[in-house]
Amino acid sequence: TQVQDFNQAIAEKPALIVLAILDTKAMVVPIEKAKQAGIPVLVFDGPTDPSVADDVMSVLSDNEQLGDFAAQNLIDGLRAQGRKSAKIIVLTGTKSMLVTQDRMTGFDKVMSTAPQYQVVSEQDANWDPTLSGKIAQQLLAKYGCNGVQAAYGMADYMALPIIQAAKQA
User: Fold this and answer.
1) Residue 115: other Cβ atoms inside 10 A
2) pLDDT at 46 over 90
């Protein structure tokens, strides 16, 4: 759908296309088409495929650092609770997106410094809050209420249904 919408935008010849990329690989050809048509593209939130990175303007978060912060917050919270070990579930954004991969790079790097806190499941929740809640319910049922001590939902709107699932469990 995003590729179709983007191609339609190119046909309308706007002064600028602003884009949050949902599928990094799928957007390569449309971005190349926009460049050929002389239409500038501004990408925000997540990076483009490296092959077209020079063809767009970008406003990006440091997603690896956001992953660092998430892991450090989990570690700090578990230590503050006095937990010497813990099992963690992770519900990510769309795994094919570079933003998700960068966040997990940072998250995994920091988590590797605290091996007593173990990620027992990492699931692709596709940036979907409804799916996040469903996956969290399934994982809490699988591991039991005492089998999960922490969760990482990659966005605030993903974390809220995880919290709700934990309260229900």
Assistant:
1) 8
2) no
Cα 61 from Cα 68, distance rounded (Å): 13
pTM summary value: 0.83
Query: What are the C-alpha distances in Å from 118 to residues 7, 52, 78, 115, 142?
Result: 44, 37, 12, 6, 16
Q: What pLDDT digit, counting tens, does each position of 2-28 carry?
A: 999 999 999 999 999 999 888 888 999
> Judging by DSSP bridges, how do beta strands 41-45 and 86-92 pair with one another?
unpaired
Both tokens of residue 26? 């799928």
DSSP assignment of 114-155, as one string? -TTEEEEEEEE-TT-HHHHHHHHHHHHHHH-GGG--EEEESS
CA–CA separation, 125 and 94 (whole Å): 7
Contact predicate 156/128, CB 8 Å: no
**Strand-by-strand arrangement of the 57-60 sheet:** 17-19, 41-45, 57-60
Three-state helix/strand/coil letters over 5-56: HHHHHHHCCCCCEEECCCCCCCCHHHHHHHHHCCCCEEEEECCCCHHHHHHC
Residue 90 tokens, joined: 């992770």
User: Residue 161: which of 121, 122, 128, 132 has the closest Cα?
Assistant: 132
